[in-house]
Amino acid sequence: MMLASPIPMALLAGREGIMLYNDGYIAIAGGRHPDCFAASVLSAWPEVAEFNADIIGHVFSGESLSYEDQNFTFHRNGTAENVWLDLDYSPILDDDGSVVAVLALVVETTKRVVAEQELVQSREQLSLALGSSAVVGTWDWHVREDLVYSDEKFARLYGVDPQIAIHGTPIADFVRTIHPDDLQSVSTAMQSAMETGGRFSMEYRLVQDGGGIKWVLAEGQPLIDQNGQCTRFPGVSVDITAQKEAVEAHARSEIGFRTLADAMPQMVWSTLPDGFHDYYNARWYEFTGVPAGSTDGEGWNGMFHEEDQDRAWDAWRHSLQTGDAYQIEYRLRHHTGVYRWVLGRALPIRDEKGRITRWYGTCTDIHDTKMALAEREIVAHELSHRIKNIFSVLSGIISLSARSAPESRNFADLLRNRIEAMGRAHDFVRPHSRTSRPVDVETSIFGLSQRLLEPYGLEETDNRIVFAGDDTIIGDSSATPLALLLHELATNSAKYGALSHAAGRLTIAGHHDAENYVLEWKESGNPVCVRQPEQEGFGSRLMKISVEGQLGGQFQRQWDEDGVRVRVSVPVASILRSSKLAARS
Question: Are strands 505-513 and 326-333 parallel, antiparallel or unpaired?
C-alpha cells in the first residue's frame, strides 16, 4: 500500500528507524536520495536527528503523532533551506501487538506556507503604502451616480484636478488617460469584476500630459447589493513605473549577457545555487551537437568521457558543498562523436550576506594544446634519452682507453664517475611531466647535492660530508642553476678545498628564513691556508649568474683559514618554480 500510494510515505523500521520509502518521498529526500534508502533516519537526516529520535520513542510507546506546518532547516540539496511539512506518525504492529516500525506520512507544505507569508507581508506593505507612500492613490467609484471620489495622489496620477476629484467627477475623466492599447483590457476586467463581484487587479499604462508613460497597478473590490448590482467600486492605484523600468533594465541586461555569452569562443553555462544547470550558450550546443535543454540538470555529466565522469562529479560536488572555485580538465564529447579535452572552470556569485545565488562557468577547448604538449613531452624525453646515451658512450670510451693504459686507470675511473654523476644530475635538469618523472630521482637540494658529490667519494667516506638543517623540494626550472652552482662548488672543493684532503670536512646546511631558503656550504679541516684568489674566475662568475641572475637570490663567499664558506639565499618561490611543461602536464 505504501509503495503504490502517491502520498509521500516512509517506513522507519526498528529503533534505529531504517528508512524504506515510496516514489513520492523522493522529492522530500532531494539530493539525499538514494543514499538515505535503507539507512537510519537518524544518520540520514542529522539536522533533525533529535526530533526523529523523539518521534520513534513516542510511537514505539504506542502513540500516534501529527504535526501541521512543522518547520525544519534541511540541507538535502547541499545548502540550508527552510521547509514546512505536515507529518503523521503511526505505529506498525507485529502479530503479537508489539511495535516494530513507524509509518510516516510526509506532505511538504513549503509553497503554501511561503505564499501565505508573502501574502501577509504584501498586505502589510500595502497598508503601510496607503498611509505613507507618495505613489499610492485611492478611489471610490459610486457606480449609479457615475462619480469617482479620489485623493490628491490618485487624481494627479490620472491627470485630474484634485479639487474636482475630491468632490466627485465622472469616471470618463480618469479613463481618458489610460493608454489606448490597454483601454479595452482594463474595461473588460473591470466589467467582469462588477458582474461577478470578484477582485479587480491589473497593471496598465497611463499617458501623461507631456507624453510620458507611467505604469500603475490598480486593485479594487466591487460592492454588490442584494439584487446583484454593483453599487460602489473602491480601490487603489500604485505607481509601479520604477519597478517596471527595473524589470525592463534587467531584461535588457539579460539579453546583453546572453548576446555576449553567445559571442564568446568558450562554452558558457550557469546553474542554480544547488548546482542545477539551467543555461548554456550557443557554443555549448555547437560543440556538443545535443538538442537544447537536453543537458539541463545533471544531464551534463553524461557528456564526459566515462573515465572522467566520477572525477568531474566529485569535483563539482565539492565546489557546491564548500563554495570553492571549480576547475578541472576532462574529455567532453564533440558533436563528431570523438572526445576532446576541455578546461572547465566555475565561480559562485554571492549576495550581500555571502549566500551563493548562482554559479557561472566556462568550458575551454584545450585539446590541440594538450596534444601539442604531449608531443613536446615525447620529443623532450627522446632528447634526454639521447643525451644520457652520450654520457654512456663517453664512459665506455674511457673504460676501453684505460685498458690499454693501466697507469691512467685511477684517472679514468675518476673521470668516468664524474660523467656518470653528470648523467644522473641530468634527471634534475630537464623538465618532467608527472608521467615522465623518474620515480627514483631525488627532487631536493640535499638529493641533488648527494648525486653531484658521489664522484668525490661520498659513499666510501660518509663522515666527511654532513647534511644538516632543512632540506627543500626544487622545481625543474630551478634545477639547472642549482646543479651548476653545486657542481662548481664540488669541483673547486675536490681541486683545492676540503675534498682534496683526507682530513677535509664539508657541511651542507639549509634553513628557511621568512620567504627565502638559505643554503650554507662550509668547508673545514684544510691543512693548507685558503686564500681569496686575486682574480675572479669563470666558475665564480657562473655561480653568481646562476644564483643572482636566474634565481633572483644572493650569493656570498668568504675564505676562512681552514676552508671556504658560501652562503646562498634564494626566494622559495624561485626554488619551487616549475616549467610550463610540468605545470600544464
Answer: unpaired
Listed residue (9, 100, 12) closest to 49, CA to CA = 12
φ, ψ of residue 170 in degrees (nearest 5): -55, 150
Q: How far apart are the first and last CA of the chain?
A: 57
Q: Give per-residue burial for 380-410: e unless 16+ CB within 10 Å, then b.
A: beeebeeebeebeebbeebeeebeeeeeeee
108: confidence class by pLDDT, cuts 50, 70, 90: very high
Q: How much is the pLDDT for 391?
A: 73
Spatial contact of 158 and 174, defined as CB atoms under 8 Å apart: yes
- Residue 174 φ then ψ, to 5°: -90, -35
State the average pLDDT for the chain: 84
What is the secondary structure of 68-110 as a DSSP string?
EEEEEEE-TTSS-EEEEEEEEEEEEE-TTS-EEEEEEEEEE-H
| Cα gap 335→394, rounded to integer Å | 54
Nearest CA among 515, 508, 495, 502 for reference residue 565: 508
The overall pTM is greater than 0.85: no
**pLDDT for res 136:** 73
Grid cell at residue 75: 540541507
**How many Cα atoms occupy the beta-carbon half-sphere of 440 within 13 Å?**
2
